[in-house]
Amino acid sequence: MHFIMAIENDSFAAQDLESIFLGLRQRVVITKFNQTVKEYVKSSNPDIILMGLTFRDKKELEFIIELRKDVITHNIPILAMIPKEDQNFITNHKKLGFTDYVVKPLTKQLLLDRIQSLVDEYKFNESSKTRENFSVVAVDRAHGRVLFQCRANLKRYVFPEFKKIFTPNFLKSLHNEYLCFDVRVVPELGKEEVDVFERVMRIFTHHDKICFIAGRHMGAFIEHATDDEKLLVFMAPNEFEDYMKMEEQKKEDSKKKEKKDKGQKDPQSPVDLGQKEDSVPETDLGTVQINIPIENTTPTDN
User: Fold this and answer.
1) What pLDDT digit, counting tens, does each position of 119-139 carry?
2) Are 103 and 12 in contact (CB under 8 A)?
3) Which single residue of 22, 45, 67, 261 could bond 73 by disulfide (Cβ 3.0 to 4.6 Å)?
4) 99 or 298: which carries more pLDDT confidence?
């Protein structure tokens, strides 16, 4: 069963889509183009996106470019549904981020065949990457945050990979950065996986909060997580970005207040140039143990 996300503002075209998919064993969401659906697409990880275009709103094309920049959605096939044959678009649709296109009015069999072909090609390419030892955990470190993008089955591939990534030297370098695990594309996530993640969190002894971008797995964290104080769960990347901005603003406000209070208490206090900042204690890895269930199998298709 495929998960098809159709974005269409034209009410007549939306009705055509409903008729085409009626009675089929597919999971289909048909919705209008707006800010909410933009974040839903990023968090729900569909197998294919059908994008209705008007050629009048540049935000439609900006949205596709945004999806291609996101590590989770950059390979998902996007089928443009265009109101007429436009030679400029047809020539440049791949440069604009679209995988293929169809011209309205939509024809049922043509559309279903095109969807099947694009989804099959997408899934084959993704499975080929796994067979070629495609990295199951991508570490993206920039702008004061470290993002661990988990891309495969957690028990079989991701958790064993953590043992290679979380070396003592790597852990010591993480003191002042936000840490986040992006698990939107992992195929399964239940109580056992949440329990392991909570054990993994304990190795980050200098962090009060560990963040997760859960997408469709949000419910599993809500149901099974026990460490509500340290674990923060977000549906989509923008929510995590907003959280970091809010925390940075709190730090800035606290510094300003501290500076103001200090000036009021002791305005002529000399500066002790010989005073050194307190050093950050090193991570004591000797007291930390992670018991991760591992299935000793080689990577195969999920």
Assistant:
1) 988 887 766 654 444 578 888
2) no
3) 67
4) 99
Following DSSP, what letter does each residue of 35-56 receive, concatenated? Answer: HHHHHHHHHH--SEEEEE--SS
How far apart, in whole angstroms, are the C-alpha atoms of residue 143 and residue 229?
Answer: 24
User: Exposed/middle/buried for 159, CB within 10 Å: 0-12, 13-18, 19+?
Assistant: buried
Alpha carbons 263 and 237: distance in angstroms, whole number? 39
Distance in angstroms (rounded) separating the CA atoms of residues 211 and 147: 9
Give the burial string for 116-138 (b: 16+ CB within 10 Å, else e). eebbeebeeebeebbeeeeebbe
State the average pLDDT for the chain. Answer: 84
pLDDT in tens, 53-112: 998 888 999 999 988 888 778 889 999 999 999 999 999 999 999 999 999 999 999 999
Cα–Cα distance, 153 to 168 (Å, whole number): 25
What b/e string do you get for 215-228 counting C-beta neighbours within 10 Å, with b at 16 or more?
Answer: bbbbebbeebbeee
> Smallest Cα–Cα separation from 155: which of 180, 136, 140?
136
**8 A C-beta contact, residue 49 and residue 99:** no
pTM above 0.70, yes or no: no
* pLDDT at residue 128 in the model: 61
CA distances for 64 relative to 117, 125, 209, 215, 267, angstroms: 20, 20, 32, 19, 55
Neighbours of 13 (CB within 10 A): 19
